[in-house]
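Entry 14. Structure prediction run on the chain below.
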Amino acid sequence: MSRPVSPGLTASALISDIAKSLASAGIEGARTEAEVIVKAVCGVTAEDLIARPEVALTPDEHARAMGLASRRTRREPLPYLLGRAEFYSLPFLVSPASIVPRPETEILAEAAIERAPRTAAKIGADVGTGCGVLASVLARHLCGLRVVATDISSEALMLARENARRHRVADRVLSVRCDLLAAVTGALDFVVANLPYVRSRDIDQLQPEIRDFEPRGALDGGADGLCVIRRLSVQLFDHVATGGFAALEVGAGQADEVANLLGRGGLRSIEVVPDYSGIDRVVIGWRRG
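Output returned:
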């Protein structure tokens, strides 16, 4: 990094100023987020900042970093500000067209990756794909797998296509604009879905980053949080091949009811997988012969 050292507009001073501003706005991890903003704007690494904390910034870099910090104090999600997020140790493009990928959804990805080889999976579906993190991760980790990625949002599907291209799996990820599995024909070896599961009355209680910025349609699961999952559950038996499975992400306290929905839909050998906090997060049902 060939930048001068200056007592004026320095990276360390800017990080400190932004961290104070973010902390005053009630943002946890303010210092870490301040470092992320400065690194993104200035194109420097964490190692650069450690080695040369007094590296000088240009006035334009300072202004852009402060602009992002101002938006963050209004609780706009950091991934939306940066246009990217990490999922399953991979970088993905994100935008307000879809929800920000969350660590809990990695449990769903891992569960599918572990179980897909039992089906000799050739084709699966990611229902409600959003920005396509699940579809791309599954295609990358399961050799030869084709994934049908469905969503009702054309803007989200544009992101999903670009993410698949960037991860070099665009030839095996087919993005389809439709409601759930409505436009999907043929048998699927498995289905994964991270669908809306927040109860309508709970939306206003969510963190402002989620409540005020993420698309409500990707969050709101209706009166009991299960309206969309319920609609998918009745489609699964007709779409999952014999020997295949469906794996759904669910909210806290919903696993038992979703297990019942899958059972009533004809799936058997129900499994429940907890997340890192011990909350039942993924419900899996198999279509037996």
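The mean pLDDT is 94.
Filed with the rest of this week's runs.
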